[in-house]
Specification:
α1 runs parallel beside α6. The chain contains seven helices and seven strands. It has about 200 residues and is α/β, with parallel strands linked by helices. The longest helix has 24 residues, at about 160-185. The chain starts with a strand and ends with a helix. It has a single domain, classed as Rossmann fold (3-Layer(aba) Sandwich). It has a seven-stranded mixed beta sheet with strand order 3-2-1-4-5-6-7.
């Protein structure tokens, strides 16, 4: 059974999908804790499912390194096999990446390496792209530059706004993150090998 700590910053729609999947006893992973960088509304999903939560806010620390050390300590206390960034909107400091990667994955609303960063959906529309999607990748020290694990495409409609497109991507993200965690748990994906390739 793969033990997960999930990190969020917002409403936690991907977290919700994982909580629902892991509540099925046949699913090969369990969420042992959910963490956030603020009092995110998505923490309510974890509480609903009886999963412990924690908040490590950067505002409480002198710098990114000390915030990272506090985050490492909190996450490590749950001894996870995998840390999942599911709508976690902060770039993790190098000490956090060093502590958990390659068993540290992120969900991103674009087909990486296209459109990295915080405005992926807006950037795809501004670029006139006809296709975008969702990517799960290993977190490294860059911004959305780690090895790609899995991707799913989403067509961009001529009348799409940032909001309508992002909503369709979120549907795909929920499917993709559950599928990817299942594959990692079943050893269909080897994160160590992928990180070395």
């Amino acid at each position: 059974m793969l033990k997960l700590v999930v990190l969020i910053s917002g409403s936690g729609s991907n977290l919700r999908a994982l909580l629902e999947a892991t509540s099925d006893e046949s699913f090969p992973a369990q969420i042992v804790a959910v963490g956030a960088d603020n009092e995110a509304s998505g923490l309510a999903h974890a509480r609903e499912f009886g999963v412990p939560t924690f908040v490590v806010s950067p505002a409480d620390y002198a710098n990114r390194v000390s915030w990272g050390e506090a985050l490492i300590a909190e996450v490590s206390s749950y001894a996870p096999d995998l840390v999942v960034c599911a709508g976690f909107m902060r770039i993790l400091p190098a000490n956090v990446v060093g502590a958990f990667s390659p068993n540290l994955i992120n969900m991103h609303p674009a087909l990486l390496p296209l459109y990295p960063g915080a405005h992926a959906v807006r950037d795809a529309l501004a670029d006139g792209a006809t296709v975008t999607g969702a990517t799960v990748h290993i977190v490294d020290e860059g911004v959305d530059t780690g090895p790609v694990i899995e991707q799913l495409e989403v067509a961009i409609n001529a009348d799409d706004t940032e909001e309508t497109l992002h909503e369709r991507i979120k549907i795909v993200e929920r499917e993709l993150i559950v599928h990817t965690v299942r594959n990692i748990a079943h050893a269909h994906v080897n994160l160590q090998e992928l990180a070395r390739s």
